[in-house]
């Protein structure tokens, strides 16, 4: 099993849900090899199924570009902040409000997402664009973006998923050598990942648009902190999201179980 997330159970009709959860547990326990997308997922399933898994974080592709430095501009009056990835639930409203606050100060929030909101006010405050390939995004972020924004949903319906999910867009952000502001609840897998890698990102555990806005402005005005953050992020990212390492872990696990 290569396992990302099983919480699609929420979309099932109630009487099928328990059967699905039981069936998944049986398959997980009987599988020869189990890969989990985060440390928190592996811990949770070990506690639940008494079966150890192997953590396989999202990783860069074999031909993915990776930058180790970025040209930073002093005293920049207008920042470009980029959010790339899925948008759903409360995230639409929060991103819109953050965009409005930034726009008032002559900054721009760019959103690259396949989900375009029906709310016309959204495009009044942010610049919405369609998603692009990973390499195009990474190159564009390195050249144009000042800060990347990663927002994890805070709604009650998402709490369970957030504890085990790992946002794949962090891999692209990391490869672009761009400072990242992460907004996520403390108990999520991504927040715990960041806390174990101090200095690699700016973590906020409060979804208030005003607090996120202030954090972005604070980071955007501190060139020294940006340079240190990029250095730390690249240092951790080379190892954590390495294609060769992931391939080695994957094949070693398969070969050990085959013997």
Strand arrangement across the biggest beta sheet: 6-5-4-7-8-9
Arithmetic mean of pLDDT? 89
- Low-confidence segments: none
Count the E strands. Answer: 9
Give the C-alpha Rg: 19 Å
Shape: globular
Write the element-wise H/E pattern from the N-terminal end onward: EHEHEEHEHEHEHHEHEHHH
- Characterize the biggest β-sheet: 6 strands, parallel
Helix % is: 40-55%
Q: Note the gap between the termini.
A: 18 Å
Compute the number of helices: 11
The portion of residues forming beta strands comes to 5-15%
The SS-based structural class is: alpha/beta
List keywords for this structure.
11 helices, alpha/beta, 9 strands, 12% strand, three-stranded parallel beta sheet, 259 residues, six-stranded parallel beta sheet
């Amino acid at each position: 099993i290569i396992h990302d997330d099983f919480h699609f159970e929420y979309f099932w009709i109630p009487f099928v849900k328990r059967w699905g959860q039981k069936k998944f547990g049986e398959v997980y326990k009987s599988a020869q090899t189990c890969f989990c997308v985060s440390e928190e997922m592996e811990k949770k399933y070990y506690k639940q199924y008494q079966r150890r898994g192997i953590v396989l974080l999202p990783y860069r592709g074999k031909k993915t570009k990776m930058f180790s430095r970025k040209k930073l501009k002093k005293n920049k009056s207008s920042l470009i902040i980029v959010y790339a990835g899925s948008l759903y639930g409360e995230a639409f409203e929060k991103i819109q409000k953050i965009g409005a606050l930034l726009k008032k100060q002559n900054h721009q929030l760019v959103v690259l997402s396949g989900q375009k909101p029906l709310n016309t006010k959204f495009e009044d405050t942010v610049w919405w664009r369609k998603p692009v390939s990973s390499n195009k995004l990474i190159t564009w972020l390195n050249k144009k973006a000042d800060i990347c924004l990663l927002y994890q949903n805070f709604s009650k319906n998402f709490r369970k998923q957030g504890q085990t999910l790992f946002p794949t867009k962090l891999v692209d952000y990391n490869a672009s050598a761009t400072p990242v502001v992460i907004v996520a609840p403390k108990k999520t897998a991504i927040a715990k990942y960041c806390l174990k890698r101090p200095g690699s990102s700016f973590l906020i555990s409060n979804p208030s648009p005003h607090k996120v806005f202030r954090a972005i402005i604070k980071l955007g005005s501190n060139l020294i902190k940006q340079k240190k953050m990029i250095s730390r992020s690249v240092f951790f990212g080379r190892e954590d999201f390495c294609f060769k390492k992931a391939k080695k872990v994957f094949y070693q696990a398969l070969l050990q179980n085959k013997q």
